[in-house]
Write a structure and sequence with these properties.
The complex is a heterodimer of chains A (83) and B (492). Chain A has 3 helices and no strands. By secondary structure, chain A is mostly helical. Chain A is elongated and about 60 Å long. The termini of chain A are close together. Chain B has 492 residues and is mainly α. Chain B folds into 2 domains: 385 residues, Sodium/glucose cotransporter; 84 residues, no CATH class. The radius of gyration of chain B is 22 Å and the shape is globular. The mean pLDDT of chain B is 92. Classes of the chains: A mainly alpha (83), B mainly alpha (492). At the A-B interface, helix 1, helix 2 and helix 3 of A face helix 5, helix 9, helix 10 and helix 12 of B.
Chain lengths: 83, 492
């Protein structure tokens, strides 16, 4: 995967997660107390799950991007073409 | 009186620790680059806590805490928008840092000038973003007065507290510039992240018996506090989106990016900040959720964090709560002061005197740290009705700089006519929408700021296709693309 594609994938994940917690029709469906998930009231669970998912994706994104950059540098050192 | 002596003692010891660490890790300031962006030398840990310290304001222990007890989980929008803003920051970390390094950028205005090639637009942009941002400095200084007053059992007056603590912050910003501000942020950020989370969780257990019991209690007294209730829907969406976009374009965020020793260090800092942010926001706002069940809940809910700390932890816990809130206030004020002084010197004073040397700008920036600090203290000691309302309106206006900055970083066709017209029209929509809400009733519940951003974006897109593309910006994009990533494992 190229860095550009990774940025595109991250944008899609970001918009999907933020859409889940901000789009009025979706939040209207989530905005209730029952059923509880892992002990958290229904809406509170999503209020926490979305930022946690974003934080986890940031870590994956960082590690993946480092891997892409390292591969690119190694390839440049060898004088090969890099996509 | 004994209780006040204990809390004052705790706060004084904490100040001494701050002063010693800032002195030990500080450096003598010799240039504008060092004063404004710490010679672009900060390791990821220093940068992470400087960011966390600057981002999380003391009002989370006063205003936001009281909101949690009165409007429930709605107040937790702070968690969503903080993490969301960091995600946006991760996107722009590389382009902003690379351009900063290659072209010697020190302010957000420098980036605007470089991208759009206009000194006049840089001046207007810097002036307006500073004006939109400044009410938050005053609010934060006011929070100090409030925190000291509440944490010392009313034995230290509001004005004396804010003057003494603010003077301490101004002094270390003046002497140590960006590095002192960041080291202060490191000490203060660690305090309210690690100590704060543990202390507040301990209080949750003491007050409710644990998280599960807390939710049962809240459901019993008012289940509506666990939902968005009547405030939900478009208003919730407007608040989260506006705060995300506005949070990303605050001038302090750019200073944080420029100060790191590599774009990878910025990204690494951004990994720690959301986790800390989720834990800080969740614990403190959860503690506030069910406090209205107590018959002696204070008439002024803004002091409820100190009241509950005293009720279940005694004066030592009140002192600790005071330290946490002061740490959050001081780190935000120092970040704003340092960035604002460099912004005024370089983007505003520099505009009227293009021949001013960098040595002189450095002197101006240092002097302005004191001037801005004193003016902000003087305003904060006045009774300003609706300051919070003014600040929120200003935030709606701040958001209007988002398209100019973000779109300009990723889209070559964005041009000066589009961003300048979009920025001005967006601000007009924000102001009109806030002062005369009836005029945007047709938007069906979306805020003036959101309507402004939408119009702003449309103008930028139309102008981009209506005007010829700039070939001058190709060089900037190719610089970003070809810049070789620096490897750095530096912590501080």
């Amino acid at each position: 995967m190229t860095r550009k594609a990774l940025y595109g994938l991250s944008a899609v994940i970001y918009l999907a997660l933020m859409g889940l917690i901000t789009l009025p029709p979706v939040t209207a469906a989530l905005d209730r107390v029952e059923p509880r998930i892992l002990g958290f009231p229904f809406f509170q669970f999503f209020l926490l799950a979305v930022p946690v998912a974003l934080a986890v994706w940031l870590i994956i994104w960082f590690l993946w991007e480092c891997k892409i950059e390292d591969a690119k540098e190694r390839s440049e050192e060898k004088g090969g073409d890099v996509k | 009186m004994t209780q006040a002596i204990i809390t004052i003692g705790c706060i004084l010891v904490y100040f001494a620790i701050n002063a010693v660490i800032i002195r030990l890790l500080g450096k003598k300031q010799e240039s504008l680059e060092e004063f404004g962006v710490g010679n672009r030398s900060f390791g990821w840990l220093l940068n992470a806590f400087a960011y966390i310290g600057g981002w999380y304001t003391g009002t989370i222990y006063t205003g936001w805490f009281s909101n949690a007890s009165t409007i429930g989980v709605f107040a937790q929008y702070v968690i969503i928008y903080s993490v969301s803003s960091l995600f946006v920051m991760f996107f722009m970390a590389r382009p902003v840092w690379v351009l900063g390094k290659v072209y010697g950028l020190e302010t957000q205005g420098d980036l605007i000038e470089l991208r759009y090639g206009s000194k006049v637009f840089k001046f207007v942009f810097a002036l307006l973003t500073f004006l939109f941002w400044s009410p938050w400095l005053i609010l934060e200084i006011k929070s100090i007065g409030y925190v000291v007053y509440a944490a010392t059992y009313s034995s230290v007056s509001f004005n004396l507290g804010l003057i003494v603590v603010s003077a301490f912050v101004i002094a270390y910003c003046f002497l140590g510039g960006a590095r002192a501000s960041a080291v202060g942020g490191l000490v203060q950020g660690i305090t309210f992240t690690i100590v704060g989370i543990l202390a507040v969780y301990w209080l949750i257990v003491r007050v409710y018996g644990g998280l599960g019991d807390m939710y049962d209690t809240v459901e019993e007294i008012n289940a509506g506090l666990l939902t968005l209730g009547a405030l939900g829907g478009k208003y919730w969406a407007s608040v989260v989106i506006t705060c995300t976009l506005g949070g990303y374009v605050l001038p302090g965020v750019f200073a944080t990016i420029y100060r790191a020793d590599s774009s990878r260090a910025v990204k690494k800092s951004v990994l720690l900040a959301p986790i800390a942010g989720i834990l800080i926001g969740f614990t403190i706002l959860s503690l506030g959720l069910g406090l209205t069940r107590f018959p002696d809940f204070p008439a002024d809910p803004q002091s409820s964090a100190f009241w509950i700390a005293g009720k279940f932890g005694g004066p030592v816990m009140v002192g600790l709560m005071g330290i946490l809130a002061l740490a959050a206030c001081m780190s935000t004020i120092s970040a704003v002061l340092n960035t604002a002084s460099v912004l005024i010197a370089k983007d505003l004073v520099g505009f009227f005197g293009p021949g001013i040397t960098r040595e002189k700008l450095f002197k101006y920036a240092r002097t302005l740290t004191i001037v801005v600090g004193i003016v902000a203290i003087l305003i904060a000691t006045q009774n300003i009705p609706n300051l919070m309302f003014i600040s929120l309106i200003m935030y709606d206006c701040t958001v209007q700089s988002f398209p100019a900055v973000f779109v300009g970083l990723f889209w070559r066709r964005a041009n000066l006519p589009g961003v300048s017209l979009g920025f001005i029209v967006g601000c007009v929509f924000s102001l009109v929408g806030n002062f005369f809400p009836a005029t945007i009733a047709w938007a069906g519940g979306w805020s003036g700021g959101m309507v402004g951003v939408a119009v702003n974006m449309v103008i930028i897109i139309v102008c981009a296709f209506a005007c010829k593309p700039y070939h001058r910006v190709d060089e900037l994009f190719s610089t970003i693309r070809s810049y070789k990533e620096i490897r750095s494992k530096k912590l501080i």
